[in-house]
Structures are given as C-alpha cells and as structure tokens.
Design the sequence.
C-alpha cells in the first residue's frame, strides 16, 4: 500500500515539474512571438534600414519619423560608460575582498554591497536628480547635470553589487592549490592574483560582466529619471540622452493601440532583445574559450 | 658527515593552540633523496612546507626555530621569500598546473623570476625533457594543461619546478593521486633528478621510499623518531616504533 502511494507521489511530482517547465518555456515563446508579430507589423510601414540608420524620432509629427539611431547610440553610450566605471571598480573590489581583506572587513563589506542591490531603481534615479545632477552641473558649468554621464554613474552603482558578488565567488572558487603553486615558484601576491587567479577565474568574471552589461542596457527607471530625456544624437557624455528603454516606458502609456507608433515601440523592444542576446552570446563564446583551460 | 644542504634546527610549529611540530632537528644532504614517512597527521607535510615558507600566509600559525639553506637562515628578516622559493622548489600532492597552456605553465615561473626572454624557450624545452614529458607534448605545447592526464600534469608540475633551476625540490606525496604506471614514471624521474638537486619527498608509500630514497626520516606525533639511511630504517631500525611502523603494524 505504502509503496503504491509513493509511486503515485513520484508520478505526480514528475508531472508537476514537467508542467512548470513547459509553462515557463511557453510563456517565453509566446512573448517572443508577440514581439516579432508586432515588430513585423511595423516593418510593413517603415523600412528596417531607415529604422536603425535615421536619427529623427518623431512619431506624432506629420509626417511622422521613426529613426531610432539616436536612442540606440544613447543606450550604448550610457551602458558603455557604466561599464567603464563598474568593471574596474567591481573586479578590483572583488579581488580585494577575495584576496586581501581580512575576515572582519569582509564580513562587514559583503552584506553592505549586497544591500546596494536592494535599493529600488527609483531611489537611485532620485539620487541622480538631487545629488549627482547638481554636482555634474557645477563641474561642467551647464544648467543641469541630467545627461549620459549621470545615467552611466547611476547604472554603474546598480551593476556593481552583481559584478562584485559574482566575480568574488569566481575568484574564491579558485582552489588554494593554484595559488600555492604560484607562490611556490616565487610569485608575489600581485603576480599570483593578476596572472594566475584572475585568468583562472575568467569565465566567472566574464559572467559577472555580462550580468552587469545586461543590467545596464535593460535598466529603465533610473535612466529615465537622470539622463535628461532628449531624443537627439548625443555628442558626448555631457549631452542629455534618451535610451531605448526610457522611450518605450515614456511613450507606451499614451500611444494609441495598434498604430504604427505602437508597433514601433515593439520594434525598439525587439532590437533591445537582440542586442542583449548578442552580448550574451559573445560572452558565452569567451567563457567557453577560457573553460578549456580550466582544471577540474 | 658533510654540511647538510637544507636543515631544520629546533623547529616547533603551532596551528593555533595545537603544536604540530615539536623541536625538529634534521639535515638533508646535497644531491640525495630523503623520504619523510610516518602516519597521517604526524607533521611530515607541515615540516616540508616550512622549508619554503608556505606557512607564512596561513592564519594562526606560529613557528619557532630556524631553517637553513646552506648557511643561510630561511626565516631571517633580510631574506626575500620569493628568492627562497626560487631556490627551493615544490611539487604538491595534487597536480596543480595553472589554467594556462603547457608552455605558459613553465614560462610563467621564468617570467616572474626575471629570466630573459631569449633564454626561456631553451629552459622550457630542457625542463620538459628532464621531466620525461617532452616526447609526449612536443607537438602540442600550446594545448591547455588541463587536457593532460593526471600523471602528465604532475610531470608538468615537476618541469615547472625544475625549469627555475632550484637547489632543492620538495615533494609532498607527488604520486598519491596517480596510477602505478604514472607513479613508476615519476619515480624514475625523481631518481634522475638526484644528480642535480637535493630532494625531500613526503610519502605514504613504504615501497616507494625504499625504491627511491637514500635516507629516510620517520616522524610520529610531530617529532622525528629516527633518521638514517633507508636500508637501516627498514631493516635495522633502532627504535621500536620505527620498526613496527615500517613493518605495517600501525599507520
């Protein structure tokens, strides 16, 4: 009797998990299909090449213009800026925590950094408006500091917890025997860290960077609040920009259903999706290359 | 008896409150192989690691006494630890090549020790030959070391140590994770290296000690019980404990 009921439970759980798996998978597929469907409806009206190569975005004007190059470059500018700040800072912190910090300091710093990830993005955006913006305005002599650099700084703050935590786990995961081997042939701590430990931890560190990039490209609220929201081709970090995500968030609320403008926003979303996908694939490729050298 | 190449004088070592080495006095002769034997936890690996200051960075370790390489105090304040480690190489229990190519594994040590670039290639090739690895890897020097077999990886680790032309090579149970064939190869290699290097090897394998070691040191509970030539230790041990250990009565 008991055995039979156990068998039933077993069967039931197997089915349950199967259903979960298929459920999640079909949601993803349905979502992608919806994106593609709506984007296709847009590209009947506007040529894909015009969409990505023109800088004029004026969906409500007459005639309307759907060039999203300015947004694309704005997104890249903010994301690249954020990574320029976050990658060295993040990996440096991770290396410090993993290799140099004493146990006490580590136990204090680690929760503090993880807490950073829990701050809502609206709060960080607010910080950008009231703290960083006046600071940047003072530095540059402009009327306000709501620009690409502001967004990049905020995004780097948001990406840091992920980058630090994941990179530190990767560095911590390198067996002590690697380091001993390096010390054993007369290497210093610095040499060991930069030439043995970090290369060995490279797949994990790359994964950390990828997660950070993903965050920087996909983040909406913070950049919407802090970057000035001007749709124009930016000439540098001190120009106001409007990213792809911010555009979708701002315009989706007021766009009439099933108009070209409506479809255009879906096309922006799908382009965003493709960018993240490509970056992830590049990341995976390098992770794979490093993995070959990994010793198990 | 001539001056030992490497020696410990009155070495005691504590891990926190626990004393692991108790007043160790021992000398290792130049160009000889000395085996350190004894039951698990007797302190033989700990002693071995004292000689290239591997305990320096371990938290909670306290050490008293002196270690000498020739006449030089290894723990003297004026000594640069990297310089000592260049002269005293180490091979670990588990093969631990770096996550680099075969070539880079050896090149790294040469590079950080300031060997001129034009001399490195020669040294790499030579050390691979001395480690009996050359024939197997000469056509794939840039392959990841991770793709080598366990025995090959351990020979690469030996090559890495040998490439720096150290004076002493410390080996911490280098064959314990290997199959008998790979072990035989490494034993032959060790015997070959004796011509140029002073070798101290920790081993759990009594046959191995008898096969390769000129001298054997028996340790028990953090002390050296007996040190003598290998035949004497295994056949005419003066200490009761030694003879019962080498005859497998405990361990």
Sequence:
């Amino acid at each position: 009797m008991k055995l039979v009921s156990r068998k039933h439970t077993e069967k039931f759980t197997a089915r349950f998990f199967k259903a979960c798996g298929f459920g999640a998978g079909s949601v993803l597929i349905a979502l992608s299909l919806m994106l593609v469907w709506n984007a296709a409806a847009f590209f009947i009206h506007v040529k894909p090449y015009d969409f990505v190569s023109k800088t004029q975005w004026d969906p409500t004007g007459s005639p309307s213009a759907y060039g999203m190059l300015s947004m694309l470059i704005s997104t890249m500018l903010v994301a690249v800026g954020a990574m320029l700040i976050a990658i060295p800072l993040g990996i440096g912190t991770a290396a410090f925590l993993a290799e140099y910090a004493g146990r006490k300091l580590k136990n204090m710093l680690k929760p503090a950094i993880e807490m950073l990830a829990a701050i809502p993005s609206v709060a960080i955006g607010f910080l950008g408006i009231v703290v960083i913006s006046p600071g940047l305005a003072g530095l540059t002599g402009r009327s306000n500091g709501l620009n690409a650099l502001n967004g990049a700084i905020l995004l780097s703050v948001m990406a840091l917890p992920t980058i630090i935590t994941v990179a530190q786990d990767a560095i911590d995961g390198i067996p002590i025997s690697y380091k001993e081997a390096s010390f054993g042939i007369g290497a210093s701590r610095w040499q060991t860290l930069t030439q043995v430990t970090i290369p060995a931890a490279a797949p994990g560190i790359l994964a950390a960077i990828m997660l950070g990039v993903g965050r920087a490209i996909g983040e909406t609220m913070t950049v919407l609040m802090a970057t000035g929201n001007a749709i124009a081709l930016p000439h540098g970090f001190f120009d106001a920009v409007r990213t792809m995500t911010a555009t979708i968030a701002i315009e989706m609320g007021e766009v009439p259903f099933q108009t070209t403008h409506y479809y255009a926003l879906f096309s922006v979303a799908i382009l965003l999706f493709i960018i993240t996908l490509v970056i992830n694939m590049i990341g995976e490729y390098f992770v794979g290359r490093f993995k070959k050298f990994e010793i198990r | 008896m001539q001056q030992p190449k490497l020696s410990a004088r009155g070495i005691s070592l504590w891990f926190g409150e626990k004393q692991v080495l108790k007043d160790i006095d021992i000398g290792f002769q130049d160009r000889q192989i000395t085996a350190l034997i004894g039951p698990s936890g007797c302190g033989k690996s700990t002693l071995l690691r004292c000689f290239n200051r591997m305990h320096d960075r371990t938290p909670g370790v306290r050490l008293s006494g002196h270690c000498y390489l020739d006449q030089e105090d290894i723990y003297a304040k004026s000594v640069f630890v990297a310089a000592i480690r260049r002269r005293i190489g180490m091979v670990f229990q588990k093969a631990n090549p770096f996550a680099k190519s075969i070539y880079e594994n050896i090149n790294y040590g040469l590079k950080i020790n300031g060997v001129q670039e034009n001399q490195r290639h020669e040294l790499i090739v030579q050390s691979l030959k001395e480690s009996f690895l050359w024939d197997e890897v000469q056509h794939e020097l840039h392959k990841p070391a991770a793709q080598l077999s366990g025995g090959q990886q351990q020979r690469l680790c030996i090559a890495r140590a040998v490439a720096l032309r150290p004076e002493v090579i410390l080996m911490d149970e280098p064959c314990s994770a290997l199959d008998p064939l790979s072990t035989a190869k490494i034993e032959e290699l060790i015997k070959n290296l004796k011509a140029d290097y002073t070798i101290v090897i920790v081993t759990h394998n009594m046959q191995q000690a008898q096969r390769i070691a000129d001298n054997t040191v028996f340790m028990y509970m953090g002390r050296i019980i007996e040190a003598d030539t290998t035949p004497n230790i295994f056949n005419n041990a003066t200490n009761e404990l030694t003879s019962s250990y080498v005859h497998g009565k405990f361990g």
About this structure: The beta strands of chain A are 57-58, 65-66. Chain A has two domains: 2-45, 65-291. The mean pLDDT of chain A is 91. The CA atoms of residues 97 and 202 of chain A lie 17 Å apart.
